[in-house]
Amino acid sequence: MSNEASYTWQQKWIAIAPKPFSLLSILGSSYILKHILTSKERRSQVYHHILLGLCAYDIIASFTMFWGTWAIPSGTPNVYLASGTIGTCNAQAFLQQLGVAVPIYTAELAAYYFLVVAFGWKERQLKRIEILLHLIPSALGWTSSIVGIATNSFSDSVFWCWYSPDKYGLRFGFFYGIVWACILLVCLLMALMYMKVLMQERKVKKYQHPNVVGATQTDTDRQTKQQRREKKASASKKIAAQAILYSGSFILTWLFASWARIYEMVNGKDAPFAIQALFTIFSPLQGFFNMWIYFRPRYARYRLDHPDFSITRFICDCGGLRSRLRTSGGSARANSTYRVGFDPAVANDLHDSSNAADKLSSKSATIKKLATNGDNRHCRNSTMKVVAGEDGGIEEENDPCQRQSTVRFADVNIGIEEEKVEEIADMIP
């Protein structure tokens, strides 16, 4: 009892507070992993591969934060619940340092959004650089952890075991230098993305014009183009909003941790308790934040589709994706149908391909403009119904040639590229 009373409530807070928040992060990242791994389509997409790496390393980092002061050698002065050994301390520090991959993956996620929104990158282009997206964070994480063990640089660092307080070079070079560089990169990419979306919105407003009674076919074509521009701007805006949320949670997670460590390095003593307390709350929560952001669009669509909504039903339905019934309201675009006339060879190639999305968006695909004069010769060509799924996949099914249901594309190449942006908006949760 006397030993218990020898610790201040601040020391007890530092030891206990990270544990419940770390569990929330572990559960959040685990649920995202489960959601991705149980879908063959999601398992094949670069975006979800980045999230897999992010969540895997976040689980490791969150576990070490939950472990907390338990791993610190027993008898360490002023450390509540210290009950470990030098071995457990080194093991915890090794795993903790692997967590440097988390901010790198988060920066890569921001870069992914930027490439998709600003440059219109396709899945096939992203796959060419995917190996680097996993090699860089893993190499830095494992190398820095091995260096820490090899140089005997790990010891107690107040909250858990990590680089010793006197190892400023290793702390900055292998961790906080990387974290701050990632924060700056994320802020830069988000600013550029915001400018890109703003330019798209201005472009849409520039081409807006009032509907004219008795409009000519040219006017109808312009209206069709305008509608596509508005859809593209709306989709890009949604993608950018999702990216900003991921980036904002990332900055919030590392803000107080950076503040505390900078204070330690500059002043040679622990940061004020208020900063330490915020550190113990927000630093372990990134996995929980990521889960909330990941399922936020699905949550919104699910509420629209189910008037009898309940949070329990939403969770049991795995984020609302088991339900394929869509309302006729604002969420209908996620399951919208585009009918395009293809050459039979192109249509068969698309059916046989495992990457129909890239085939559809490729400018090399031969697309015939369907005239509105009722010419029946187009019925000799196969017509395909292409459904943009909720995760951005392309669902295909054969459909009889029905002229009255066919969408006429005024500008084929631009039209397909704009529809692809809408598919990406649904693919990115």
TrEMBL record:
Compartments reported by the entry? Membrane
Compositionally skewed regions (Basic residues) per UniProt: 225-234
Q: Which Gene3D superfamilies match?
A: Rhodopsin 7-helix transmembrane proteins
Q: Which domain of life is it from?
A: Eukaryota
Q: How does it sit in the membrane?
A: Multi-pass membrane protein
UniProt-annotated stretches for the region Disordered:
215-234
- List the keywords (alphabetical): Membrane, Receptor, Transmembrane, Transmembrane helix
What's a single GO MF annotation on this record? Answer: G protein-coupled receptor activity
Species name = Skeletonema marinoi
SUPFAM superfamilies, alphabetically? Family A G protein-coupled receptor-like
* Name of this protein: G protein-coupled receptor family protein
PANTHER family to which the protein is assigned, alphabetical: G PROTEIN-COUPLED RECEPTOR 157-RELATED (PTHR23112), TRANSMEMBRANE PROTEIN 116 (PTHR23112:SF0)
> Where do transmembrane segments lie in this chain?
20-37, 49-72, 100-119, 131-154, 174-195, 239-261, 273-295
Q: What lineage does UniProt assign to this protein's organism?
A: Eukaryota, Sar, Stramenopiles, Ochrophyta, Bacillariophyta
Q: Which GO terms describe its biological process?
A: adenylate cyclase-activating G protein-coupled receptor signaling pathway
| Main subcellular localisation | membrane
